[in-house]
Amino acid sequence: MSDGLDARQHRPDRAVLVIAVLLAGLAAVIVWDTQRLAVAAAYARVGPAAFPYTVAAALVGLAIWTAIAGWRGAFPQRESVEFGPVAWIVAGLVGQMALLPYAGFSIATGVLFAFTAKGLGRGPLWLTIPGGAVFGFLVWLTFTKLLQLSLPAGPFERLFV
Known about the structure:
With 161 residues, the chain is mainly α. Helix content is 71%, strand content 0%. The protein is built from 7 helices and no strands. The chain has helices at 4-9, 14-35, 50-72, 83-103, 105-119, 125-146, 155-160. The radius of gyration is 23 Å and the shape is flat. The N and C termini lie far apart (75 Å). Residues 1-7 have low confidence and may be disordered.
């Protein structure tokens, strides 16, 4: 005879089922958007639409897998969410987007790096912002000089280049 615990463990997990629906919805958006691409006739069967369709197929597979696991109630117990670290990381992303056109890639990325580190419980901001800016500058150099791609340059980048 089973007790109430077995029945609770095999109940569908609604949050997981919502995630499965969102994954399937994202796959549908990718397929819809890919069908709108204006692709010139090509001799090869693999064109620019192949990769988005592959990603959409993988998302559908993940959606099905997630839905089955959610229906079975096979997901482990979730931990509670701590909003403090999430707020630090989101603030870092907002700060980077706001600073990017004015301060350049290195300083904006230094802010993102420092706020993310703070959210994860590491280092003071006065130490991690300069460290992140130096790392951001190395990334900027790699993209602009080696890969010939354009990233926003600010006063820090103009000092050295």
